[in-house]
Amino acid sequence: MAPAVPLLAVRGSAGTSLLRGPPQCEQHSAFSSDCGVCRCVTFSKDGTLLAWSNKNGVSVVKSSDGSSVSTFDLPKTALMEISPLNNVLVTWQPYTKTQDSPQGEANLQLFDLQSGQLIKALYQKKVDSWCPSWSEDEKICARIVNNELHFYENNDFNSIANKLHMQKVSDFALSPGGQPSKVAVYVPGTKGAPSFVRLYQYPVLGGPTAALANKSFFKADKATMQWNKKASAVLVTASTEVDKTGASYYGEQTLHYLAVNGETALVQLAKGGPIYDVAWSPSSSEFCVVYGFMPAKATVFNLKCDPVFDFGTGPRNAAYY
């Protein structure tokens, strides 16, 4: 159970502390503040666990009463995450080589949170996409390795259960919800060829007919992929670092829609300029886009990518349901 009163973890110059939220904001009585300089802090998805790292290592406690779950001798930890069902702690530290280990040390480590035992140590040189991504039931876990997507099953990291072989996968997004899991993968364009996003349903990843949907587009240095809650469709915000026309300091953005039934579309926006935010409705039947040079427009679209409501223009750059 998540705590009834919201908790706020604070990482600052005075160390790490835990506050209890509204109506009053006060120190959590069961949590003794840590005065050490904290590199990173994270809650588990359900809010029941709090983890932080300092020069002594990583500590994991129950957020309800501050009791210790595990401690790890990992003083160089810069990033960490707890798996959706609180079974695994994954930590990342900068990749380094020394005279003793010219190969470098395995810097991505996965631990069993209950026993504190190391499950697997892996190499992850780049900080981009450092964190493995789990399905909500932890039946599947995926990570990018040398532009391939590697899948593990049931937290067994000693054997790769499946691979997605494609030219240069640079990002991916696992679908929310239970099985069967779906995955959206982004491959950036090269030498005149377009970028593309494809959707797959695990474990069918190979062969020309494996993809559920495919959408290609130019003008993309990076892409952000957002699944809706029902895992029936993905919105892809493709963006360039530089706007060749010089109209925008923020580069150019386009919005694309892909559904698992194979339908794809370019979302037609009624005003030029940046895309500031895209939000799916909790019902998965519509989405809101905030876009255009200030004052920005905000429009709700249906799954045919037709506008169904327009909020007009105003000083805004975010949308929340």
From TrEMBL:
Coiled coil: none annotated. InterPro entries: TIF2A, TIF_beta_prop-like, WD40/YVTN_repeat-like_dom_sf. Pfam families: eIF2A. One of its GO terms (cellular component) is cytosolic small ribosomal subunit. Residues 215-321 form the Translation initiation factor beta propellor-like domain. One of its GO terms (molecular function) is tRNA binding. One of its GO terms (biological process) is regulation of translation. Keywords: Initiation factor, Protein biosynthesis, Repeat, Translation regulation, WD repeat. Functions in the early steps of protein synthesis of a small number of specific mRNAs. Acts by directing the binding of methionyl-tRNAi to 40S ribosomal subunits. In contrast to the eIF-2 complex, it binds methionyl-tRNAi to 40S subunits in a codon-dependent manner, whereas the eIF-2 complex binds methionyl-tRNAi to 40S subunits in a GTP-dependent manner. Belongs to the WD repeat EIF2A family. This is Eukaryotic translation initiation factor 2A. It comes from Stegastes partitus. The gene is LOC103375725.
